[in-house]
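I have been asked to look over a protein record a colleague put together. What it holds is a sequence and that sequence's fold in token form. Please read both lines and tell me whether the tokens look consistent with the sequence. I do not need a full report, just your reasoning and any doubts. This is what I was given:
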Amino acid sequence: NTEEAIRFHLKISLKMKYHKLGSSEIVVPICCLGTMTWGEQNTEEEAWEQLDYALSKGVNFIDTAELYPVPSTPCNSVRTETYIGNWLKARNCRDKMVIATKVSGPIHASFDRTYIVANRTDPPADFAQQPQLDAASIRSAVEGSLRRLQTSYIDVYQIHWPSRQLPKFGQRRYVPRPGAEAADGQADPIPLEEQVRAMGELIQEGKIRAWGVSNETTFGVCQLHEVARQLGVPPPISIQNDFSLLFRFYEEELAEAAAPRHLNMGLLAYGSLAGGVLSGKYLPGSTTPDVEEKRSRHSKFPQFQTRYHTPRALAATAKYAEIAELKGMTPTTLSYAWAASRWFMGSVIVGATSMQQLKENLEAFEVELDEETLRAIDDVHVTLRNPNASD
């Protein structure tokens, strides 16, 4: 029994749910520990405390990225992976963990992210280009992450966002630019064949166990699977996309494409609390110390991820908060329990800046919502559909 074997290995008793991620043999819990605040809103000591607690509760799946923490700056770049690597070495628990990280995609020239590439070597390079997804860049990014994480392999290596032009980060409309197929910041998109071949080589070398994508579309995952088939490379096993009560687009054609009977990719859902908005703490008259002291994400960085806290998003959040109150649970519990209940869910990524938040987040995965609650959620969705969409 997979779940019993995992619980015995981790020496825990909590009935955390586990299953294989997509088409792989990698077993993950329904909850994944997010890390993107570590190094900006959280210290290394706080990161270690979160890691220790999460593992004690059976959450042995960590998601990170070479980009983290966010918002990314030259001063905080790569701190997150470094913190995780130091913890893994100190706790000597690499064999218990499933680690997912990401290679950065191309970025518009107006945003200087050359320091991400520079930090792939130690010492950092004196000169570096903007992030790209050519084979050499993917390889150098892997080597940098392996060094910082202090491990010889990565379980799931993800393309953070695609090389080609497409709507992402709340955008929904595909509007092709005349004469341009590439994402901002490059002349031409890196061929999918080059990206997939690079992943295949890293799997063969034992540097990664499997690979996945993030911020992808239905067209993208279908093309990548076909290219992998043609090249004889294992296909991507996961897709990490924005998914919450406020942004349910994944349930449409992407869920069909990624279903077990088709491409068999597990969803790694990020943004399931919309950066804390769905906790209700940004609603009028509802506040918490971190909001008041400008330590929460949207109070400290009001121009970051603005799609999460629009008037429409707050209006929908208020409706979901009413449902939670009627059912005797917090809005946070409702949001995470709902995400975990989706048939296509691989793992829900949770983030926290305090231990109190982390404990509440993990407890949500012990809750099963009844049919009445699920119908009430869908009723709100029909009237206030996907308010996190930015176009």
